[in-house]
Amino acid sequence: MKYLLIIFDGMADEPLEELDGKTPMQVAKKPYMDDLASRSLIGAARTAPEGMYPSSDITNMGILGYDPREYYTGRGAIEAASLEIPIDTTDAVFRANLVSTDGELMVDSTAGHISTEEARELITLIDEKLHTNVIRFYPGVSYRHIMVWRGGSDNVRCTPPYKFHGKPFREFYPEGNGAEKLIRMMEDSYEILDGHPINRRRRDEGHLPANMIWFWGESHLPEIPSFFNKFGVTGAVVAAVDLIRGLGRMVGLKVIDVPGATGYIDTNYLGKGQYAVRALAQYDFVWVHVEAPDEAGHESDIDKKIEAIQECDQKVLGTILDGVKKLEQDVRILLMPDHPTPISTGSHSSDMVPFLLFDSTQPKQTNLPFDERAVHETKLVVDHAPNLMRMLLKLAES
Question: Which residues contact 81 (CB under 8 A, 6 or more apart)?
Fold first, then answer.
């Protein structure tokens, strides 16, 4: 038996006036999802524990079978694991976004989805100018980077920059132990980056500048068991974003590199499907993650979100299902969003999400739709996200 966990990040949404009261999932053409759903169990899941924000690190950790209340220590350390940055349990690790500001307002938390090549040059400069014997910066993908504070404090409250677009960013500065040091570096970064030739060129070309760094995702290294030790199966992860790759690496999954995978709507959807099939031939379990619907939700772009869902269906899921047939292997598939990212807010929601659970040895028949309506119509409700993995692997629920 082979096992697939497929996460189309942030795919769930809310009814929209612009779509005549429907959601992007309902409007999108997704024949592969709909056909698979017609032969699957359809349920609803709460993916973040009560009192915890439904960020992708928390929701994916839960769906992967690890209770965030036990293992979650923050986002930065997970992404550092993806980049294979050496960190100790005494280190504080932060996500460092390259962002766009006008000196007063947070204009865009992704710096207009700056290219990885441009970002690498800017972060390298920031490290040259701001590093100390205990502070170092490490480049990641696009706007997503890491700062490690050796022996530093993660007892500080930082606000994710996507939460306050269009608002005065100084009102959201870090607070707590070590906040002054972080604020000073953020302000210094503006002086270093705002007039940089890359940003002058970006402005001339009509793009947003990457003219400041913003710290968030404060964390330290967690103690977490391997996926094999916990569940007894070998596994791999196919993902573009450091958060998911890092979580996979942290639990011992093989991280699969896909050329052209960007973590945005322009990602190599077809490649993700193809590489997932190759991994499935080698490993018991493969986790496939696509970020694109979430990014479209954060941008509050209806058309992009519908397009992302359709690409996920046709090029990712379609490619995987065709490949599974050729492998001639029995397969169980858990497919779902990790949380809603409503167009109306551009941020994550704690609402329950639909999921489908398919077993090629025991296909089901259902009339439930695979979209947000299923949350209200299904009788299969999972309130504890780690039980989803136990259901996929046919283990007793905890």
Answer: 246, 247, 249, 250
Could you say which DSSP state residue 364 is in?
A: -
Is residue 396 scored above 60 in pLDDT?
no
The pTM is what? 0.85
Domain topology for 2-72+224-392: Alkaline Phosphatase, subunit A (3.40.720)
The SS3 assignment for 72 reads coil
28 pLDDT more than 60? yes
Q: Check the CA dihedral 299-301-306-311 and report its sign.
A: negative
**Rounded CA separation 348/275 (Å):** 28
Range 371-387 average pLDDT: 97
CA distance 276 to 286: 7
Residue 177 CB neighbour total at 10 angstroms: 14
Quick one: what percent of the chain has pLDDT higher than 90? 90
| Confidence class for position 154, pLDDT limits 50, 70, 90 | confident
Q: CA-to-CA distance for 259 and 279, rounded, in angstroms?
A: 15
Per-domain residue ranges of the chain: 2-72+224-392, 92-219
